[in-house]
Amino acid sequence: MTRRWFGSVRSRATLAATLVVAVALLAAGAAVLLSLRSDLTGQAESEAASAARAVAVELSDGRPYDKLTGLDEDDRPVQIVDERGRVVAASEDLERVTGTGADTARPGDPGGRAGGDADDDADDSDDANGSDGPDDDPAPRGEVDSDTDFSTGTATIDGTTADYRFAAVEVEFEDRGKFTVYAGAPLAAERSAVGTATTAMLIGFPLLLSVVAGATWLVTRRAMSPVEGIRREMAAITASEDLARRVPVPATHDEVARLALTTNETLAALESSVERQRRFVADASHELRSPIASLRTQLEVGAAHPELLDLDGAVTDTVRLQTLAADLLLLARLDAGERPGDARFDLGALAREHAEGRAGVTVTADEVPVAGSRAQVGRVLTNLLDNARRHARSAVTVGVRAEGEWAVVAVADDGDGVPEADRERIFERFVRLDEARSRDDGGAGLGLAIARDVAVRHGGTLTVGRAPAGGALFELRLPRAQ
């Protein structure tokens, strides 16, 4: 069942369309998520950098830790870390933090790397910020670094833990060293937006793929319906062997309609070919029956009464039977697609050879080389000469000349000619005009059919027209050998 399903054009088209859309949706979804995450992370970085730089500026001005406005915000984690990694100031409600490089969240928390006692911390605080007394000298200003570094971590504020994007800005004092201000911006919006978008895609993509698959299935079903009609009709034609039937042609003017038209043309050609074959077999049987019956009758009479045996008639019937059999065999080989070969020979010399010894035949032949089967072309000349001599009153002329890329053989007689309405019909098999239907004069009606078939197989043509003397003019054109 699975193999049959995948063997359907409709199923393969549906699967292919669904896979293409799925890949496109995955790529687009990934791009959207990455872009959304990048934009929201960029916004968080901008907020964190702005907060960190504001605190750094205040710190560089010598403002005491307890006067730094950035440390008063309840929802934003801020740390100030000295160059030894000790936290010297932090947001009031900050309980725990990661991603800032410090081991503790607030000054004096246990577990810090710097250690020391409270007096040391107080001294460091005084060194960093100066004295608040009115008689003290103003603290020297620090220099704020223009670069901002970013990191991702977590912070616990007032018992709530969340993800943050931290910005780090350095402030350097000549006498007290370097301090780093860390300020964080929450990533909750980024996480929420990305999660919402991912959920929407996980729900929406399967639905969209289902719609695409269903639509493709219906569209291909509608598109392939005429093809199925053509298949059914062809199966019926094969079963009934009725070549007169035709497949339905859809009114869509597309590839399927053209397929139906071509199929009907093929059926018409096949029907015509089969009909010609049937006529050929029937006519061949009829033509063979006459000489065979005549020969049998003469032999039976001769067996019973030897003195009454007509040897001349028996020989004539035997020769006619032999000629007819040879013609039928040649036609069979031509119908089977026998190639004419590529031997080179002089058409003028061949024409003179076949006209030699024929009474009333005049030959004017130039030397014109052609390529093909010398025997088959010779058979064409023989048939044309026999036909011309049968209908001529007194004279037959043969001319061979070169005409551009063609070699032309013209065979003319001074008989009554061929009526214009019959000039194509005489090249059909077993066709004889009324005045040539006698057994003795008309032959089997295969000579001209064989001549045209040979001409066509050699890439040429054979036509009939009116001769200057009023009779028939047959022109054989063959490609000249290069």
Describe it for me?
With 482 residues, the protein is α+β, with helices and mostly antiparallel strands. It folds into three domains: 34-192, no CATH class; 255-335, Orthogonal Bundle (Helix Hairpins), CATH 1.10.287; 343-479, Heat Shock Protein 90, CATH 3.30.565.10. Helix content is 50%, strand content 19%. It has helices at 2-6, 9-60, 118-129, 188-240, 255-304, 311-335, 347-355, 374-391, 439-442, 447-457; strands at 78-82, 87-90, 94-97, 143-144, 149-157, 160-173, 177-186, 343-346, 361-365, 369-372, 396-403, 406-413, 461-466, 472-479. The strands form three sheets. Strands 1, 2, 3, 4, 5, 6 and 7 form a seven-stranded antiparallel β-sheet that branches. The protein has a five-stranded mixed β-sheet with strand order 9-11-12-14-13. The longest helix has 53 residues, at 188-240. The chain is rod-shaped and about 150 Å long. The two termini are 61 Å apart.
List the helices and strands and how they pair.
Blueprint lengths: L1 H5 L2 H52 L17 E5 L4 E4 L3 E4 L20 H12 L13 E2 L4 E9 L2 E14 L3 E10 L1 H53 L14 H50 L6 H25 L7 E4 H9 L5 E5 L3 E4 L1 H18 L4 E8 L2 E8 L25 H4 L4 H11 L3 E6 L5 E8 L3
Parallel strand pairs: 9-11
Antiparallel strand pairs: 1-2, 1-7, 3-5, 4-6, 5-6, 6-7, 8-10, 11-12, 12-14, 13-14
